[in-house]
């Protein structure tokens, strides 16, 4: 297949491009490199030294003979170029990773809120309307988030996208209808993914665009089978307070003897998936495309759920790291249960990699190797969800909070 990977320079997009290229697909990476600019804005860098996208593509070609084509294009602001690109290249499938994906970054200031909404919603809408306008028949696979559901299950499992509801008609009859699971985003970033869902519903119904939306949990790990093949193919790894996600953050914190930064009681339960499974799920989703006129196919792309404090406990046991319970900069439930259905990927043959010490060790190993690249001042999560919470943010978990380290 000819596959366009939008956002293919990012943490999930790069290993997905390698994985699909390895299988013989023709890959076109489209990216505006905004994530690299955001690193500059925040004064941070990936824990792992990332080469330019052009250099990474060159290394892959010299190792495998497979071409990775890179196109510098902003999906949100360069609509005409996007439409022309689609008309010229006519991909069979499009994988859409190209959004601003950090909840803390999206809540930093009004400017960051505006940027995140403009970027994410325009990127998705530009893509959909350009697909219709050019008449290409590509299968669109979008990376959404578990966070569109919120994280409370009221004791029932979260279904894969749709909730069957009984509606009583005027004549008193009960009619069943599937509706999109009620959305309850917890940040401006998560809100953009909820808006994406409505865009997808409309274009699938109105224009027969074939769409799969993957509601993904938190991705952890750093290597995949392909990225291990050469040190210059190494993946991005974010550890800072805005872009670092919880499990990967705890692992690097343990590696540099920084207290594990648990927000609040750590009673938040979240869904997780290893990066290797994430790329495999995308391959499986590509092989199971909906037909024109079908409703959007929604998969829950996660393999297990964990409570934040249990993860901290596990890593502390493994490494001897101290745990700091910090005031939570986010507005979120202190404690929640989370039960999630993921039957569709299991039935397509996904054999989940679960949290094992071996794999956790591997990330700690990567962190130790590149520890000299870590700026400890960039570890605290300082982006607060409200002005009130901002006044309680802990900027120095290493110093001030040592009292509350257990
Ligand atoms: P990332 O920030 O590492 O990568 C996103 C890429 O998209 C970057 O290379 C960026 O430059 C590019 N991009 C952003 N806006 C663009 C635009 N307007 N035009 C062109 N390129 C643009 O993020 P990631 O961790 O790889 O996440 C990829 C997708 O998966 C996101 O949509 C995210 O919401 C979703 N997701 C990620 C996780 C996770 O834990 N990382 C979990 C669930 C879902
Ligand atoms: N947390 C801590 N300590 C930290 C960092 C986070 O306790 O140092 C807590 C947060 O308060 C939150 C939980 O861990 O309760 C998860 O935070 P996160 O930053 O790992 O994940 P989140 O903000 O939800 O976002 C990440 C990705 C996003 C993706 C989402 C999937 O950045 O792109 O959509 O995970 S999900 O969480 O399933 O919605």
Topology:
Blueprint: E1 2-6, H1 13-22, E2 26-31, H2 34-42, H3 53-64, E3 68-72, H4 79-89, E4 93-96, H5 103-106, H6 110-134, E5 139-145, E6 162-168, E7 174-180, H7 188-207, E8 210-216, E9 218-220, H8 246-255, E10 260-263, E11 269-274, H9 275-286, E12 297-301, E13 304-307, H10 308-319, E14 323-326, H11 343-347, H12 357-369, H13 387-390
Parallel strand pairs: 1-2, 1-4, 2-3, 4-5, 5-8, 8-12, 9-11, 10-14
Antiparallel strand pairs: 6-7, 11-13
Helix pairs in contact: 1-9, 4-6, 6-7, 8-10, 8-12
Bound molecules: nicotinamide-adenine-dinucleotide and sulfoquinovose-uridine-C1,5'-diphosphate.
Question: What does this 3D model show about the protein?
Answer:
Residues 3-289 form the NAD-dependent epimerase/dehydratase domain. Pfam families: Epimerase. The protein is α/β, with parallel strands linked by helices. It has one domain: Rossmann fold (3-Layer(aba) Sandwich), CATH 3.40.50. The protein has 13 helices and 14 strands. It is globular. Bound molecules: nicotinamide-adenine-dinucleotide (NAD) and sulfoquinovose-uridine-C1,5'-diphosphate (USQ). The site of sulfoquinovose-uridine-C1,5'-diphosphate has 22 residues, from helix 8, strand 10 and strand 11.
